[in-house]
Amino acid sequence: MSFENEMMLVISALSINESLARVSVASFLSQLDPTVSEMSDIKISVSEAVTNAIIHGYENKSGQVYINCKIKDFTITITIKDEGFGIDDIEKAMTPLYTSKPEKERSGMGFTVMQTFMDNIEVNSVIGQGTTITMTKTISRS
To answer: Is 106 designated active site?
Structure first.
């Protein structure tokens, strides 16, 4: 038996909304009855992706962060998109400890965290048009 569901959320690119994104995705995910570890992995990854969109995508300018979650069977696909500045070198940006904002005391571990906790992560970006991060994770069936 196949199961599908979808959620879309648009938030203002404000740091205060990062927790709203994390909790919204967690609430949507709860229908799959994930383990505490799976839930934590996804919440952390969403926090990192949304924070990247806000801090690096818009750099304190107004904008929107678009969050789309799709569940098919026991796999969740989370897409987080901004329409900000974009990333000029995705490979470099995904290098552990690299940060384009050292003055803001960023750790440079956001993409590394997402890659560690999710089954798959894809990053697409166009300078001046924004960045889209797509992450997937299959939830175990206990």
So the answer is: yes
